[in-house]
Sequence to fold (388 residues):
Amino acid sequence: MTPSLNPAFPWPALVRATLAPALALALAGAGADSARAEAGAQGAAKPAPARSSPPNAAAGRSPTTIMAPATRRPAAPAARAAPPAPEDVPLPADTAAASADPLEHLRQRLADRLVAPKGATASGSFDVRISTRSGLQGPSGAAAQGVASGRARGGKVAHGPGAGAVHWGYEGEHGPAAWAKLKPEFGLCKTGERQSPIDIRGGLAVNLEPVKFDYQDSPFSVIDNGHTVQVNLQPGNSIDIGGRKFELQQFHFHRPSEERIDGRQFEMSLHLVHKDAQGRLAVVALLFDEGPPHAVVQDVWNNLPLERGEARPARQPLALTELLPDDRRYYTYMGSLTTPPCSEGVQWVVMRSPLSLTAEQIGLFSRIYPMNARPVQSASGRRILQSD
Fold:
């Protein structure tokens, strides 16, 4: 039986191009007549150049001695209509104008796409897109400061260091004189008329009700928030001022003291920040001179975290009542936060009797924050009251 190709079967171009030479030799060996018949059968599938019978066929020689012409080659694929592509490899629309070799065409298209410039927006069947899932960028320096600040506050009142995501400090281009320029929300730091701290002078001595401290031994954590050492406390501690209850949120330290009494500045100060049900703030300020050690402050130092921005929970509760002076007389006036955004409407209670820290306790804080005090602001004629 004479081998033949089924012209109705859609042979891929690469297979037909590979088998054509072998089939041509086999057909030639079957004889001139068979070769012509086979050529006619193949003509339905592809065009072939016309040729005459070899001379040796007319001379009656054995068909086995017939040699296939050395120059016989299958017609160039470019001269034929492109066969339908397999369904699992969708070729682009411009295949007819591309290279005759599909594999070479595919390799060329992939190479073109892989080296395409970043700005290229063309899209095709063989586009290669590389994407990442890391859409979570590490914060920039200013943003990282805001994250650390938010952790430091732990959702509590933003008095003290850590307010806002903009980097601010106590010296240089980010110091107090520039706070209002760093962020629109910090505008009161320059334009406010009731800013803190102030130099407390000429307080009006009146019969003020004592501040009622309802402090308990409380679990706590210590955090270095990038501006000070801050102590976060669990709920359950409060003060009562004139019948109004304020819940203790946190306390933190400044060196030197931000408050001054008749022009005198102290080694350090501590601010206990409270908030009432309506969101109004009351800050109790404790002043420190150099002297005997303070046990509660030492408990705070003993629980300093190793890393800035990470709160370290303490194993033992803090005896808050022992933090306060025995003499509970105080000054009071209306002021502001002493850190950005410098919000006003804060009631200040400054204890008149200073406490003490050793030189070592002061020095320990100084090694972390040598200076983190806002300069005194104008009293602007505010009324200052002092308890007898």
